[in-house]
Amino acid sequence: MLVRDVGIAIKKRRKALKITQPHLADLAGISVNSLYKIERGKANPTLDLVEKIAEVLGLEIKLEVKKITL
Amino acid sequence: MLVRDVGIAIKKRRKALKITQPHLADLAGISVNSLYKIERGKANPTLDLVEKIAEVLGLEIKLEVKKITL
DNA sequence: CTAAAAATCACATTATAATGTTAGTTCGTG
DNA sequence: CACGAACTAACATTATAATGTGATTTTTAG
Question: In chain B, what are the domains?
Answer without folding.
Answer: 3-57 (1.10.260.40)
